[in-house]
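Is this the right way to post C-alpha cells for a design question? Let me know if I should format differently. Anyway, here goes:
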C-alpha cells in the first residue's frame, strides 16, 4: 500500500484533532493568537492544515491570521501544525480540514490512486519548484549526479526526493537503480550523513541544510544538488482545498488566497518582521535559525524566474502537464489525473496582485 493511502487511514479519527493543543483559531478582530477568538457568527470557518511544524516558512499563514487579514475577508481560520506534506492532503481528503498546505506531487498520487474519492485541488502554488535536494558528503567523492552511482542514500519513505528519485535520475542520465536506498526515520536522516553511515540523503533544501549544520556539518563539506537546478521541473507545495468546500464557498477560498497573498508580499519584503508571527505562535523557536530557514525557502523555491515574470501562485499549463506525467512515471501510477483535476486557478487573486517580485534585471 502506498504511503499516501497508509496515512489516509490514520486521519479519519477527527475527534483527536478537534482537541489538538496546536490549533490556532483566528476570527473577528483577530486579536487573540493562543486562545479561541469570538468570530462573527456569519464568518466562514476554515480548518487549515500546515505541512509541518510552526517554522519559518509558515510565517505568511500565521501573519495573515494574527494581523486580521483572514478576518477582514469574513473568515474564521483555524491553523494546525502538520506532520508531512502528504499528511495535509490526507486530512483534507478525510474531511477533517477544508484546506491545507501540501506537496502537489503527493496530490497527483492521491488523485491517481483515488479516482472515485474526494476531490482535492491545488489553488495557489507557494513553492514554484520542489524543495527536494540531494545532500552528499564531498569526502565520498560526490560532486555530480553521476558520482552517486553505487552510493548509499537515506531518506524516509514519504520523502519527495525519494519518491521522485526516478525523475532526478532520468534528468541526469543516471539509472534509477544505480544507488542503494535506506528508508529511515526523518529524525535520523541527517545524523546518518554526519556520522558517515551513508553517502547522501534527500530532503527539503531549507530543512536538511540547517539540520546538518546543527549537527556540525558545514555547507563546505557538502555537495548539494537541488532538484530544480538539476533538470527536475516539478512544482512543490501548494495551498490545497476540498473541491466540494471550494464549490460551495468560492468567495471564502478567494478571500483566503487574497489574505495569504497579502501576507506573503509582506513576508518577502521583511522576513525578519514576519518571523515574529511564528515566534508568537511558538515561543520556543530559535528565531535566528527560523529566519534563515524562511529566507532560504523564499530564495530557493518562491523567488523564481517564473514567479518574477508571471507572478506567484499560478501554474504554467504545459509545465504542469509535464510534471504530472513525470510523477505518474516515477510513482508508477495506474491512472493519470488531468491538470484541471490537480490545479484550479479560478480562485487566485488577479495577476497584478501576485507580482510580488520585480522582474529580472529591474
Amino acid at each position: 500500500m502506498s504511503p499516501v493511502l497508509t496515512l489516509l487511514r490514520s486521519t479519519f479519527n477527527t475527534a483527536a484533532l478537534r482537541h489538538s493543543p496546536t490549533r490556532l483559531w483566528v476570527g473577528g478582530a483577530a486579536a487573540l493568537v493562543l486562545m479561541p477568538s469570538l468570530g462573527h457568527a456569519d464568518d466562514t470557518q476554515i480548518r487549515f492544515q500546515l505541512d509541518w511544524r510552526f517554522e519559518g516558512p509558515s510565517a505568511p499563514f500565521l501573519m495573515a491570521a494574527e494581523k486580521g487579514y483572514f478576518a477582514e475577508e469574513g473568515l474564521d481560520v483555524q491553523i494546525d501544525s502538520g506532520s508531512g506534506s502528504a499528511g495535509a492532503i490526507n486530512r483534507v481528503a478525510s474531511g477533517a480540514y477544508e484546506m491545507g498546505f501540501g506537496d502537489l506531487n503527493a496530490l497527483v498520487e492521491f488523485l491517481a490512486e483515488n479516482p472515485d474519492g474526494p476531490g482535492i485541488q491545488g489553488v495557489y502554488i507557494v513553492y514554484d519548484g520542489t524543495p527536494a535536494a540531494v545532500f552528499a558528503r564531498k569526502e565520498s567523492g560526490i560532486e555530480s549526479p553521476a558520482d552517486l552511482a553505487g552510493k548509499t542514500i537515506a531518506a524516509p519513505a514519504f520523502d519527495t526526493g525519494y519518491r521522485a528519485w526516478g525523475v532526478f535520475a532520468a534528468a541526469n542520465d543516471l539509472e534509477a537503480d544505480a544507488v542503494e536506498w535506506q528508508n529511515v526515520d526523518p529524525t535520523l536522516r541527517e545524523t546518518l550523513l554526519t556520522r558517515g553511515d551513508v553517502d547522501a540523503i534527500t530532503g527539503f533544501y531549507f530543512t536538511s541544510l540547517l539540520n546538518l549544520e546543527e549537527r556540525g556539518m558545514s555547507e563546505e563539506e557538502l555537495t548539494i544538488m537541488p532538484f530544480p537546478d538539476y533538470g527536475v521541473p516539478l512544482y512543490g507545495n501548494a495551498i490545497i482545498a476540498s473541491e466540494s468546500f471550494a464549490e460551495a464557498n468560492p468567495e471564502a477560498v478567494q478571500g483566503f488566497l487574497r489574505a495569504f497573498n497579502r501576507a506573503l508580499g509582506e513576508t518577502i519584503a521583511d522576513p525578519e518582521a514576519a518571523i515574529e508571527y511564528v515566534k508568537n505562535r511558538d515561543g520556543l523557536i530559535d528565531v535566528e535559525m527560523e529566519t534563515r530557514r524562511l529566507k532560504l525557502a523564499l530564495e530557493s523555491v518562491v523567488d523564481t524566474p517564473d514567479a518574477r515574470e508571471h507572478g506567484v501562485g499560478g501554474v504554467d499549463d504545459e509545465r504542469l502537464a509535464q510534471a504530472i506525467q513525470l510523477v505518474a512515471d516515477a510513482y508508477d501510477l495506474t491512472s493519470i489525473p488531468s491538470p484541471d483535476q490537480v490545479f484550479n486557478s479560478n480562485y487566485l487573486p488577479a495577476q497584478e496582485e501576485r507580482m510580488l517580485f520585480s522582474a529580472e534585471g529591474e
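Format looks fine. Someone answered above. Worth noting: Residues 1-38 have pLDDT under 50 and may be disordered. The two ends are 50 Å apart (CA to CA).
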